[in-house]
């Protein structure tokens, strides 16, 4: 599997291999005098410091060479690498740091290299790799290093103009005034939001003083809003991006996609494909957080590894998605679940046919601001635009979605279906009544609360219907996105109520789906009344 190539300005699309190449990956013969080729030649003189192949010469795989070339291309200041755990991203970056501090391709005096991480222990991992590589150098070179392991983790190089490598944690104030020639931001997706962004901004602001470069490396973040995800999805000019992420929705033990996320497995780097598949099957059997964690860390997917309070996990929802040929028909009464949005939020509707289990959902935003601008402000990139292209989302109204015309437009999409009732939030009852009158809808309205009482029952009925295979829908980016943002708050008695995972999350489609499916489950559970006449004694 190889990564596709793209320039250092943002472009849409990745290859099947999940990688996105950048400048410096040319089909022409590489220049042996370039910084990248000098770095590759130097790295392959080092010896592996630990693991089963400890003591052997370091041999870079193709994906590692691509990253080195992209990172050290003159036009790039930042290089971003997203790859599965155990594919030597930290070790490779540490080897690059060693070459940088020794001035192999950078002759500036007093070079400065930073190892930045969420905390000191994380930064120490890269530091230990650096020290291990130093120990593989000839004795004459080793004597030029001073290694400090006390309160400060530092490596000082006294030859070739001198250099210093040091570790820092996520506190931007600790490096104000620094001028690094190279910075390694390790496991960037795991950094705390505010402190991590402050540290990153402080580092990047100092790089320009000495034409420095930054290597931002990590496994995938759990969501699109993470700063590391933004680097991958919206890279600014001067950024090289290499992402090894398989397509969404594949089985956890799929061999081809495992190799996409773990290209080192085919090169003898890290875990073997057999081991990865065995771990995948174990995670599938255990389910829950074990499976979510495997997808995030080993398959490099954007899946939250924390599922103690999620409404449902990714794999639980994927079980409800079917192909168009397998989708049940619209048969029997239809339950319409509605979540009316506020002045600027999404309004969502979910249609559920309890007799067949068919589910359809769509969302609506006001036209101002545009879907692209709204996606940028919500931290989800082009997701809303893609939903609109898939006919799962549309716009109506200027600054707000008018409830009456919206409800009428929604019902048109299932024209001919027998709508048995509309289910919605009891606190919006007056708005629902007005909207139904304007849409000329004369069906019962069932109001439900989103608090502990009604919410706990609806969530439990929805989960039970989903797990029993009574919910079937086409693959929907709208619903995937909504359920990925939905969590539940749990009270001391174990009751659940729906909530957002983040303040900018959009869970309206998930809320509408829970309401519709729960009401459908209640109707199916009611005993069928007998038509037998009453007999009097």
From TrEMBL:
Pfam families: TerL_ATPase, TerL_nuclease. InterPro entries: P-loop_NTPase, TerL_ATPase, TerL_nuclease, Terminase_largesu-like. Residues 79-221 form the Terminase large subunit-like ATPase domain. Residues 268-519 form the Terminase large subunit-like endonuclease domain. GO terms for molecular function: endonuclease activity. This is Terminase large subunit. It comes from Chelativorans petroleitrophicus.
